[in-house]
Structure formats: structure tokens, C-alpha cells
Amino acid sequence: MATLPQLTEEDIHKLDETLRDFNASADATVSLIIDKGGFLITHQGDSEEFDLTTIAALASGAFMANQTIAGLVSETTFNSTYQQGENHSLFVTNVDDHCLLVVIFKSETGVGVVKYYAAAAVKRIARQLKIARKRAPEEGLDLSMLNVADTQYFFRKKEKEPGGKKRQ
């Protein structure tokens, strides 16, 4: 079963624009869109000091563990998680059934500011993912089924259409 819609370059550009706007408003260091399996979809911000692939996997696992805890305390779900550190903090919030927004920000930035701006960003991200799903409802990806040893199906050159446009 596909968990992610088929995303085009335009979709990724719009998602990246949303993340850039969010980072500027919330004073976030880096923000990521990941699927709930822990795979990084896209990110924006100053990421050089972070291993985003590992952070995505662990943030997803922590978020999903908190969903189990929610059930144990008679809640249907916990919509977000927050870890506070001395230098950086991490906020993870639900986007839709398949994706999460992960935010790394300096600890002196208040989590309330991040939560406030995340609400609007989550709506924009969810809207773009919904547009992508409607475009090709039968197509998509289940990243957990990705064979990372053979990625040639996912990473290939675009062919040019007559008239010079690139196509997939």
C-alpha cells in the first residue's frame, strides 16, 4: 500500500517553500518532512551539523512510541512530541496519516513559538500532499518497501520531451 503520493518537482518545491517560510517565522534551525516509517522526504535549514537520516528514523520511532503511550493513558492520540535540550530542542508533529513535521530549534527559542507557526505549516504541507494524491490516486510510494541496495528505479535522469521539456 502506498503511503506517500507520487511527488513531482513542483510538489517538493512547494513543500520546501513552506519549510523555508516556517523556519524564518519560528526561528527554527532545520525542519524536515518525514514519513511515519522514518524516511526523510525533504528538509530546509542549516543541517550541516545534523545526521538528518538518523534523526528522521529516530524521531518517527519516538513519535510512534508516544502513540502507544497515548493509548495506555486513554487518549486516542498525542498529536506532537517535544524534547528539550541544553543547546537544541526537537518538536515533532503529525501532518496526516503518513507524514510528520520534525523541527530542530535552538533551546532559547520557545516551544510555543514553534508550535504556533507549525500549525499553519502543517496545514500547507497536508494540502500539498492531498493535491499530489488527487493527481494520481493509484500511484505512490511505500518507502518501507524501498530496496536501498538498488535505488536505480527512484534515481534516474529525466528524458526530454519534444520541445525541450523534461519528463519522468
Task: Supply the key terms.
168 residues, alpha+beta, Beta-Lactamase, two-stranded antiparallel ribbon, 3 helices, 38% helix
CATH superfamily: Dynein light chain 2a, cytoplasmic
- Outline the low-pLDDT stretches: 147-157
Return the structural class. alpha+beta
Q: Within the largest sheet, what's the order of strands?
A: 3-2-6-5-4
Q: What is the second-level CATH architecture? A: 2-Layer Sandwich
Shape: globular
Task: Tell me what you see in this structure.
α1 runs antiparallel to α3. The protein is of the alpha+beta class. The chain has a five-stranded antiparallel beta sheet, sandwiched between helices. A two-stranded antiparallel ribbon has the order 1-7. It has a two-stranded antiparallel ribbon with strand order 8-9. It has a single domain, classed as Dynein light chain 2a, cytoplasmic (Beta-Lactamase), CATH 3.30.450.30. It starts with a strand and ends with a strand. The chain is built from three helices and nine strands, in the order βαββαβββαβββ.
